[in-house]
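Continuing the series of single-chain predictions for the mutant panel. This is the parent chain; the variants come on the following pages.
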Amino acid sequence: MLKKRIIPCLDVKNGRVVKGINFVNLRDAGDPASLAGTYMDEGADELTFLDITASNERRATMLEWVSVVADAISIPFTVGGGISSAQDAVNLVALGADKISLNTAAVRRGRTVTECAEALGSQAVVVAVDVKRDGDAWRVFIEGGRTPTGLDGFEWCLEAESLGAGELLITSMDRDGTKEGYDVEFLRLVSRSVKIPIIASGGAGEARHALEAFEAGADAALLASLLHFGEMRIRDLKGYLTENGVPMRV
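Parent structure:
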């Protein structure tokens, strides 16, 4: 059985890790490379770095901190934010990133997903899907959650897979930073319909929430606030999940 993954998420703004609630009210959480090393030592399976203002500010991901992080850790890490072409993606992997994450560029031009997959292999291409609940549906937002697209979240997940995505990083904007738990309803809906791995994001407040995400079909759980501010340790979380029958690397 494939092992489930715990992935700390580090939102980066101006070279610093930040965290907020519902994508706003950001506060400083530390230095990217220092936090990355700490999480690696604590047992993180992977890391995800999102340059959260790159797309909105129409600029590329800051390359300096990517190379510094690559020198500091020995576990896989994903970089997203401001990637608009396959060449951008290739450049980041050349600096040491193992995967790239597309969101805004993927929505605006689906062919970008395909081109990145052709250049790097689908296994290195994550499509991030930021969704808000809208009645019985979920709608996609881009540019760090600032811009509504009107796209149906479920349909976009299916399309992203068909375009060549190797993983989906699904963030509930309604739950982000609230510590009320992941949107397991949407995770379950998508997991039953795609063949690629799903990473759950947005809302973790306790160990039970990660368990719920895995039971809903997620292959990995992304965590931020709980880890950045010392409310939970990765090894403790993995211990809890293992005791509850979730296959983990420990």
